[in-house]
What we know:
The chain has 237 residues and is α/β, with parallel strands linked by helices. The chain has a single domain, classed as Rossmann fold (3-Layer(aba) Sandwich), CATH 3.40.50. Helices cover 32% and strands 28% of the residues. The strands form two sheets. The protein has a six-stranded mixed β-sheet, with helices on both faces. Strands 2-1-4-5 form a four-stranded antiparallel β-sheet, with helices on one face.
Amino acid sequence: MPADIIINAKNVVKTYDMGAVKVHALNGVDFELKKGEFVSIMGPSGSGKTTLLDVLSVLLRPTSGEVFINKKPISKMDDNELAKIRGKTIGFVFQTFNLINRLSAKENVMMPLWFQGVPKSDRENRAEKILFDVGLADRINHKPSELSGGQRQRVAVARALAVDPEIIVADEPTGNLDSVSGEQIMQLIKDLHKNGKTILMVTHEEELAQNAGRIVRLRDGKIVATDVVKKKEINVY
Length: 237
């Protein structure tokens, strides 16, 4: 396996047992993500794109096949080891933000650092710096209910960056935003990529997907096409 491969999936199958019915969400998927890449995953509703994202980011174990993170097979890892990967190697940005409503922006960003055992003063300094970097220096003490959708997603991006992960995984990161806020979040993600972050993003919008270097297209749980995006300046909306 080449040294620059961060995530590698081999013949991954994911089946959900719904009692009398088995739903085959993924049907033998092979996938590689290289360090420094920006890859978009696209497909119609029910194609398996979110399931693939969850398996690649070790939120789900595959039914069969294997996923390697930095050459290490997740089938050999226990739940604690997988939690460490989710806490350090991968930063998550969700469509629904997944912020803790009772906590301020700064406290939300500090949470993953708390799980890592980082001292409080260091947590505070790190959170304030990242919120400044994403344009929320004047909102650090505001709770999610006091922020716009775009601002909440910026907090979510800041939280994902808190532990300096190798990979940013984004599931429909602009899905709940207006067009202006969505464009700002997309620009933030592009800037993270330019600064060296590896990005793996699910989107249903072709225009957003075109911001990646590669688009992986799913249908019926299988990869049916992989498109290399021509390098040019693209309007995100």
